[in-house]
Write a structure and sequence with these properties.
Elements: E1 2-6, E2 19-26, H1 41-51, E3 55-63, H2 73-81, E4 84-93, E5 96-104, E6 108-116, E7 127-135, E8 141-148, H3 154-169, E9 175-180, H4 188-196, E10 197-199, E11 219-224, E12 230-236, E13 248-253
Helix pairs in contact: 1-2, 3-4
Pfam families: Exo_endo_phos (PF03372)
Domain Endonuclease/exonuclease/phosphatase: 23-245
GO molecular function: catalytic activity
Length: 254
């Protein structure tokens, strides 16, 4: 399942953007970890709204599942935030789908769902990469991707990154990737990622989990080395209620 749509944005006509504000956020299907069984999508929307990003990579998104009240969370967030969206299903769940999504202030096209391999542990939960072409003000275009790698098996994560790197090598547009990589900066998977991408943080990555007392950085924003971006700022937002991950926000300059 892949779903896309627009919540009312029209194509921008202003001059070229000089900078892009990008967010990565694992939203834990909008369940605040302190409230078992509660779904509070407006809390997630509020966190995103406060940061005013141009692009958002979401993970752990429910679409029409019983546990989340049969709501299309990607579409609902897009409507609340007046953004375009694309949802990519990773697995069937609870009568609906569960996966990753993209939100964008600007029009999306050429949406794509890439299945990620899991040869080392085939019983693991299926993982995907969602990508879309984003048409920016002035007509400039980039590729944006959201992903969520295997949580259990390091060899799977390495293979999944290698697949993403192969996809990136064929991409002609500047390519920004963000997501929950479930691995640390010094891991084999992230070392492999760094061969093709420049992360917005390097050795000084602030931790993003666990949300109450964060100790590990596993959520990253990156761009292909040929993209021509420079990092203006990078921060982890200390928002501890809405999800079990802290969101990451970076500003990139063309």
């Amino acid at each position: 399942m892949a779903l896309s749509g627009c919540a009312g944005k029209t194509a921008a006509t202003q001059a070229d953007l000089a900078e892009l504000r990008v967010m990565s956020y694992n939203i834990h299907h909008a369940n605040p970890p302190s409230q078992l069984g509660v779904i509070y999508l407006e809390a997630i929307a509020h966190v995103i709204r406060e940061q005013n990003p141009d692009l958002v990579a979401l993970q752990e998104v429910d679409v029409n599942t019983s546990r989340s009240g049969n709501v299309n969370q990607a579409a609902a967030l897009a409507e609340k935030l007046d953004m375009h969206y694309y949802f990519a299903r990773a697995i069937d769940f609870g009568g609906g789908a569960y996966g990753v999504a993209i939100l964008s202030k600007y029009p999306l096209s050429e949406t794509n769902l890439v299945l990620l391999p899991e040869d080392a542990a085939p019983e693991a939960e299926d993982r995907v990469l969602a990508t879309a072409k984003v048409t920016l003000p002035g007509g400039r275009a980039i590729r944006f991707g959201s992903t969520h790698l295997d949580v259990q098996n390091a060899a799977n994560r390495l293979q999944q990154v290698q697949t993403i790197n192969s996809f990136a090598a064929r991409e002609q547009l500047p390519f920004i990737l963000a997501g929950d990589f479930n691995d640390l900066p010094e891991s084999r998977a992230i070392t492999e990622l760094d061969k093709a991408f420049t992360r917005t943080c390097q050795s000084d990555c602030a931790p993003t989990i666990p949300v109450d007392v964060p100790t590990r950085a596993i959520d990253f924003i990156a761009f292909t080395k040929a993209s021509g971006f420079t990092v203006v700022s990078q921060q982890v937002i200390p928002e501890r209620y809405a999800s079990d991950h802290l969101p990451v926000v970076a500003t990139l300059r063309f």
